[in-house]
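for the recovery benchmark. tokens below, seq after
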């Protein structure tokens, strides 16, 4: 459970800003979005494979561009 102690004479806006930053560091918002809708395990696997494929293609594209300039 995340929490932020409000200091004496601290504006609530600053405390809220610190709380939001803590939530971001903990990955709370991404976890909430991820759990918003149920995804079948097969769909999770397909998305993961597609992301890996895109990453691999991007690396290859960069490597080809570097080899052309040498």
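predicted aa per position
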């Amino acid at each position: 459970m995340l929490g932020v102690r409000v200091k004496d004479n601290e504006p609530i806006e600053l405390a809220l800003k610190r709380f939001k930053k803590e939530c971001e560091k903990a990955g709370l918002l991404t976890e909430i979005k991820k759990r918003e809708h149920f995804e079948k395990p097969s769909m999770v696997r397909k998305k993961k494979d597609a992301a890996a494929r895109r990453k691999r293609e991007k690396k290859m594209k960069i490597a080809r561009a570097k080899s052309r300039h040498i």
